[in-house]
Design a protein that fits this description.
The structure holds two protein chains of two kinds. Helices cover about 50% and strands about 0% of the residues of chain A. By secondary structure, chain A is an all-alpha fold. In chain A, helix 1 packs across helix 2 and helix 1 packs across helix 3. By secondary structure, chain B is α/β, with parallel strands linked by helices. Helices cover about 45% and strands about 15% of the residues of chain B. In chain B, the strands form two sheets. In chain B, strands 3-2-4-1-7-8 form a six-stranded mixed beta sheet. The two termini of chain B are about 25 Å apart. Classes of the chains: A mainly alpha, B alpha/beta. At the A-B interface, helix 2 of A face helix 8 and helix 9 of B.
Chain lengths: ~80, ~280
């Protein structure tokens, strides 16, 4: 599964678990937080742990910035850097 | 009886040891008129009668003024060690023991002298991750061996949550005070005729990662400070989701409640209205 598809899959599961709708127009610019799809900080952590589990990686805090987990595209880049780091 | 002005900022600048100043401050507090704001709080929230309210308010005022005196010492790089030497027989073994199983959360509260436990923890070592108002600190604290994160900045909260999780997973210590209650996600406890708001970020981390947590307090005991670490244990393991987090907060509150009830010197959450007149 490509990185972005994996993120979208995980995001769908997290949003379903929280009773939130999955926007139809997901893209790299999609904001993950409460101003976007509606994840709070715990929800974003849940998303990252889900990505870890499905991608078989262990995230590290190198490259972890506020911007890196602000949008789906930023998160995709962060996860990709972790996979190849 | 006079109600002489007292400014911790001027007192801190005078010669003399911090211990002597705290002892002097006790006598000064005992000789002051009880502060009317504290009298009112004690009567309204602790049901204090006329005889009990005045000595209670003097002790509460001493705690606030002493806390600000200690805050100033902690902020002075030449006097920080003198402040930390107020700790009587420091025992970090509960933290060390909890860390044998991995990361550990230290759940503090706005009790006791301000910024004290945070400084003691950083001085103890291990490069903890500290959730604190970083705007309310001297610049040189930013060079202390710790990861200081300001959860008051809303945009940074997701990053801080993830960073805290990675830190705990690496076996680190996470220090924060849920009673800040700044978070959108919170639990409210009604007690002492008011609501107490607790952010649920720390219990969420404990729940998701399965890490241990300790109630962690640095409290006045006389003119010294004692460290207190008490494991946060849930009454049942059958809980899930928000019920688990509420039980965690309730267990945290169970350690806070008796301090509020019997220890007026440690009610730091009452200090915000006093800092300006104390010069801090």
């Amino acid at each position: 599964m490509k990185g972005f598809d994996l993120l979208e899959d995980c995001l769908r599961d997290i949003l379903e678990g929280m009773g939130l709708p999955l926007p139809s127009d997901l893209g790299p610019a999609t904001v993950l937080g409460e101003d976007g799809v509606g994840l709070d900080s715990v929800g974003i952590l849940q998303l990252l742990l889900a990505v870890e589990a499905r991608a078989g990686i262990r995230l590290r805090d190198e490259g972890l910035t506020t911007e890196a987990i602000l949008t789906l595209g930023g998160l995709a880049d962060y996860v990709a850097a972790q996979q190849h780091g | 009886m006079a109600r002489p002005g007292y400014r911790a900022s001027e007192h801190a600048a005078e010669p003399g040891s911090l211990r002597d100043k705290l002892t002097w401050l006790r006598r000064h507090a005992d000789g002051r008129d009880p502060d009317p704001r504290l009298l009112q709080w004690g009567r309204a929230h602790l049901d204090l009668g006329a005889d009990a309210a005045a000595p209670w308010a003097r002790r509460a005022w001493w705690g606030i003024a002493a806390g600000e005196l200690v805050r100033l010492a902690l902020q002075d790089c030449d006097r920080r060690d003198e402040a930390l030497a107020l700790i009587r027989a420091p025992d970090w073994s509960p933290v060390t023991q909890a860390q044998r199983d991995g990361g550990v959360i230290l759940a503090a509260a706005h009790l006791g002298p301000p910024k004290f436990l945070m400084n003691a923890l950083i001085a103890h070592g291990g490069r903890p991750l500290v959730l604190t108002n970083t705007a309310d600190m001297p610049d040189w604290w930013r060079n202390l061996p710790a990861l200081l994160c300001n959860p008051l900045t809303k945009a940074d909260r997701p990053r801080i949550m993830v960073q805290a999780a990675l830190h705990l997973r690496a076996g680190g210590v996470l220090f924060g005070a849920p009673d800040g209650g700044f978070s959108a996600a919170h639990v409210t406890i009604s007690a002492f005729r008011r609501d107490w708001r607790f952010a649920t970020g720390l219990p969420a981390l404990a729940q998701m990662l399965g890490v241990d947590a300790l109630n962690a307090f640095a409290l006045w005991d006389g003119e010294e400070v004692v460290l207190r670490f008490v494991p946060i244990t849930l009454p049942t393991s059958d809980l899930a989701g928000s019920a688990w987090q509420q039980a965690w907060i309730a267990a945290h509150w169970a350690a806070i409640e008796p301090i509020i009830r019997i220890s007026p010197e440690n009610l730091r959450f009452l200090s915000s209205g006093f800092r300006r007149e104390l010069g801090t």
